[in-house]
Amino acid sequence: MTNDPRRSSRPRFQTFDDPSHAKGAERIEALRAALREIGADGFVVPRADEHQSEYVPANAERLAWLTGFTGSAGLAVVLADAAALFVDGRYTLQAPEQVDTGTITVVPLAETTPEAWLGTHLKAGQVLAYDPWLHTVDGVARLERAAAKAGASLRPVEANLVDAVWAGRPKPPAGRVAAQPDALAGESREAKLDRIRAALAEGELDALVISDPHNLAWAFNLRGADVAHTPLALGYAVLPREGRAALYLTSPEIDADLRAALEPLADLRPRAAFAEAVAQASAGAARVRLDAATGAAALKGLVEAAGGVADTGPDPVTAMKAVKNAAEIAGSRAAHRRDGLAVTRFLAWLDRAAEDGVSEIRAVEALEDFRAEGGELRDVSFPTISGSGPNGAIVHYRVTRATDRTARPGELFLIDSGAQYADGTTDITRTVAIGTPTDGMRERFTRVLKGQIAIARAVFPEGTTGAQIDAFARASLWEAGLDYDHGTGHGVGAFLSVHEGPQRIAKTGTVALKPGMILSNEPGYYRAGAYGIRIENLILVEERTVPGAERPMLGFETLTLAPIDRRLIDATLLGAADASWLDAYHARLRRSLTPDLDGATRDWLEAATRPLGEASA
User: Fold this and answer.
1) What is the per-residue pLDDT across 383-408, written as a single tens digit (0 to 9) for each?
2) Backbone angles phi, psi at 4, to 5 degrees
3) N or C: which end of the chain has fewer CB within 10 A?
C-alpha cells in the first residue's frame, strides 16, 4: 500500500472542475433567438438524453451547458420573458450556487411543479416547443395539459434548439462494448430472452422496444463505456415476440467476442437504422410495448405512424433485472468485502490525516486510490460527495476547486461514495467526527443511526412496499421534530446503475420488495450552514424465518462492511436492542476484514469497532 495515496499519479475517474454560470445570460438569450426563428415562445430543457439516463454523455449535457447546473435531475423552461430551473430537495442549496440567478429563477419542486409554473407564465396563443426524444409519453401529456390550461399550444421540434446554439458541442460517445461473462451475470442471454418473450406473450404484445440502456445491458449480458460511472452501451433493441432481436448501438466499438456471442440470437445493426426497425415492428397494427419510464414520446410517433399500437407500460426487463440471482448476489458480497477493506483503510487514514488538516478533494482522491489499490476497480459509481462542515449539509454536494475546504476541529465530515467492480456495484456513506463533536451533533447522529438500524432490523410480510417501511428510518427524527428531504433508499444494480428501479424505500416506493433486490439504507439529517449527517449501507432483501409466522416474511442482509463512528453515538439514546445490533455488525466487520489488514489499520479497526460498553483505546 502506498504511504500517501493522495499523491498517486493514476488517472482519476472524477474531476473537480468548477462549472461556470458566467455565460448563463448569454446562452439563454441565444436560445431565445432560436425560438424567435421558429416562431415559438418557449422551450423545455430536461436533464435527460433520449434514454432518460441518470448519467448522460457529454453531448447530452444540455441543461448543464445552458444553465450551469450539474445535478443529476432537473428541468428548465425558457420563455421570452422568464426562465426557471426546477430541482428537487437534493439540489435546493446547490442549484442557486451554480446558476446565474439574475437570469434563471431556481424553483424547488416542493413549492411548485413545472406544469403549475407554466400555467401562470404561458400566455394564450403562445407556443411551447420541446424535443420529443427527451420526454416520455407521460411527460409530454403533462406539458400538453399545462399548455392547454393556459390557452397555449405544444409543438415538437425535429432538431433540438439547444444543440443549434451550442458551439463546440461534444461528439456522441464511442466507448468499447464488451460481454459480461455468464459466470458473473448468472444467466445466459438465451434464457433471458426466453423469459422476456414469455412476458410479451402473457401481455399479448407483439414486440418490445428496449430503450433503457441498463435493460439492454442486462438482457444481452453486455457492458459499455458510453457514459461516466455506469458501464452502459447507449442504444436500443427491438425484440419481437417471435423472430430475431436486433440491437442498435451508438458506439461502433463492439468487441469481437461479443459479436460472436450475439450472432445466434440477434442482429447488430447501425443506430441510424433504428427508426425504420420500429416502423417495421409496428406494421399490421402490431402492439408494441414502449417503456413508460424511458421510452421517448418520439417512439410513440414512430409506432403510430406505421400503423401500430403504442402500448406504453413497464418494460418487463426492469422487474427481472431488479431481482438478483445467486451469482449476482455472490458477486455483490465479494465486491462489498473488497470495498469494505478500501473504505476501512481510508477511514483509518482520514483519522490520522485529519490532525494536519484534510481537504475535501484530498479525501476524494485518497478514497479512490485506496479502492484502486485492490486492482479490481473499474470506475467510481458516482462522483464522490465529500462535504466538510457546512458543505455536508448540501445533500448532493460536488466539491470543486473553487468550493474545496479543509475540515476543521469540531466539524463533521460526510463522504458518500461508491465503486464499480465487475462483480458488483457499491454505495456507502459515512459521517465522521473531526476532533471532538458537540452534544448536539451526537444527538442528531444517533437519531439518524437509530433510523438506519430500524431498517436493517426490519421484518415484514411479502408484498410490503418501500413506502410502508420508509417511516421506520424517520421515526426517531420525527420524535425531535426533524426530517430529511430525500428518499431513504434506492435500488442498486449488479455492475450497473448505482440508482436502479423500480424498488425503493421512499414515500413514492410503491413496488413490493422481493428477495434478491438490493437497496440502499441511508437516512440523514442536514443543518443548513453547519453540517450534514448521513449513514448509508446497502441491503439485500432475503427470506426470513419467524417462529409462528402465518405468512411468508422478509428481512434484510446488510452488505456494506465499514465501521460507523462510535465517537458520534450517544449510547443512552440508542437503546439496548440497537446497540446490540451495532456491536454485532462491528464484530462481523472484524471477522471479515481483519485478516487482510496491516498492523496499523488492523489496530485502528479494533479500536473503532469496540462494543459500545467499552471505552475506545
Assistant:
1) 999 999 999 999 989 999 999 999 99
2) -135, 90
3) C
Residues in the chain with pLDDT values less than 70: 1-9, 19-22, 615-617
CB 69 within 8 A of CB 63: yes
The dotted CATH code for 178-317 is 3.40.350.10
Q: Which residues pair with 178 in a beta bridge?
A: 223
Q: Which residues contact 419 (CB under 8 A, 6 or more apart)?
A: 335, 339, 342, 371, 377, 378, 379, 380, 381, 425, 426
Round to whole Å and give the CA distance between 415 and 523.
Answer: 14
Q: What is the pLDDT of residue 615?
A: 63
Question: Cα(595)–Cα(518) distance, rounded to whole angstroms?
Answer: 27
Please give the class, per CATH, of domain 24-165: alpha beta
326-605 adopts what CATH topology? Answer: Creatine Amidinohydrolase (3.90.230)
Facing residues of 307 across strands? none
- The set of residues, in sequence order, having a beta carbon less than 8 Å from that of 173 and lying 6+ positions away, is 57, 58, 59, 225, 226, 227, 234, 250, 251
Query: Phi/psi at 83 (nearest 5 deg)?
Result: -145, 135
Structure confidence at residue 19 (pLDDT): 60
Question: Residue 587: its pLDDT value, please?
Answer: 98
The H or E element containing residue 496 is none
Q: Which residue has the cell 441543461?
A: 63
Task: Please answer whether residues 129 and 160 qualify as being in contact, where contact means their C-beta atoms are separated by less than 8 angstroms.
Answer: no
